[in-house]
Each structure stands twice: as C-alpha cells, then as structure tokens.
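Project standup — Tuesday

K.O.: blocked on the structure for the chain from last sprint. Re-posting the sequence here as requested.
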Amino acid sequence: MENNYYIGIDIGGTNTVFGIVNEIGEIIFTSSFSTNEYKDPRDLVKDIYDKYINFINTKHIQASGVGIGAPNGNFYTGCIEFAPNLHWGENIPIVKIFNEIFKLPAILTNDANAAAIGEKFWGAAKDMKDFVVLTIGTGLGSGIFVNNNIIHGKNGYAGELGHTTIPESNRACTCGRIGCLETFVSSRGILQTYQEICAKKNIEIIIGDISTKDIYDLAQKGNKEAIETYKITGEVIGHSLANLVMILDPEAIFLFGGIANAHPILIPTISDVIDSNVLSLFKGKVKILPSALMNKNAAILGSTALFYL
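H.V.: unblocked you, prediction finished:
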C-alpha cells in the first residue's frame, strides 16, 4: 500500500465531505459541499473533481481510486437507491458518474457501512470481529461486522436499522412510512421530541432557532426539558438495540455522527435499557462506545478502506 492515495467521499443528506487519504490512514486534504444545493448529482461530482485536481496539481500525486459512502448506497449495483434524505431521484448511478468524470475505479457502499469499515481499519474496532456502528445524524444507519466481514445482504440493503418500526412512534418518516426508529433517533427526531416536551409545558420554542447541539448544551446545564429529550432518545434506541444484541451478539456498538457527540448522556441510558431488556446471558456483554473516529471523518476513511478489504 506504499504511496497509495485514495479519494473518500461521504455523501450525506445535508453535507457531502471528501478527502484524500494515504496508506496509513491520514487525510491529507479535505473539503465539503452542501448536498442540498445540488439538483443534479453530476454537478456535485464535477465540483469535487475540480477541488481534487486543484489539490493534486500542487502536490504532484495521483489517486488510485474513489471510495463512496452514501445513504442507500448499493455495493453491488453502484447506485444510490431510493434514498429518502436525498432528492436526486430513485436510482442514481453514482459509481458510473465518478468513473466518467474522474477516470478512476470507484466503489460504493452504504454510508453507515463506510463508517463501520473506517472503525475497523483506523478506529477502536481493529481487534474486533463482531460489532455494529450506528451513524446518527440527519438519519439513522447501521454498519454491521459479523465474523470479520461487513454485511451487505443478498441485495445490498443490509443495515437499515433506522427504518425498522418501533411501538413508541406514530411519526411520519421521510421514507414515507410511519413509526420508523429514525423518527426519534435522528436530528429531526430529537428536535421533534424536544418540541413536544416543551409544548406540554407551554414553553414556546421556534424549531428553526435551535439545534440538537443546543439541546445537548442545555442538558449539560441542567435544563429539564433537554435532559428528558435525550433520556427518551436513549430509551427508544436502547429498546431497539436490545433486540439487535440478541440477534447478533456483538462485542461492541459504536455511536458515530453529529448526535453521537451527546454520548456522555446517551450511553448510560442506552446501556441500562439494553441490560433491562435482554436475556440474562447477554447482560453486561456488549460495550456501548463512542466512535474513536468521531472527529476524524470515519466515513471518508472507511470509503477509502473499501479498496483494502
């Protein structure tokens, strides 16, 4: 892998980040774009290419391939398929677009899979064979390693934990269904929970004026409504993870993404709920941990590590 460079792309519902990664997992260049500003994904890829060319012309290096992590990214087809938080249509041949514009090999996977692969190669899961990475941000995804292999599933769709339904929710999801876990465990879900708690107490808030980080900051300062919001979030995801633990028996579950920065108040609740809802033989067996790559663009690292699998 000496002197190899790969381009890592993390396409998110809000922002797209890309970086150039060397063979020891160092991101030597990074830039970002607002995904929502692009009506056509080809225009986004062209802008990424321009940034890439400007950088390599100054450094005299050449990348060997492009790894892409995206919502509903299908490893087998190279397409982004029916991604509810993107607005480019139902079936986007993103690998073909990158091939045509970059003239390089390209590999696609689900964004949560990319984060899990990043955790495996460069993070805290290096010595683990069985673990799960939850990506909590605009939506909720999961990347799953079983017996040292990332799980894609028969059709490339494995890991849609965010779109499993839960009894706690009657909220509409961006996927068009009702009651998905993501309607509670995501930035939108947390904001809605906080809004509902405040409304019951006749506390007026304007959602556009507050973020999930603001709510977390309030919780750290002792605000009762904010603390309750994150307690409910931790309980809801804990119930779902209890089922996942009994199915997969993982060594660890990692929290990754913007919402995961609230792990100091989320993890104790999640752990307690899991242990209260699993069979006794599973109690205390799974570690709930923040990603070791929380502030290191794990999805970029993971998408480039696709070339090392």
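K.O.: great, moving the ticket to review. The mean pLDDT is 93. The helical segments are 41-59, 94-102, 111-122, 187-200, 212-220, 224-248, 263-277, 298-305.
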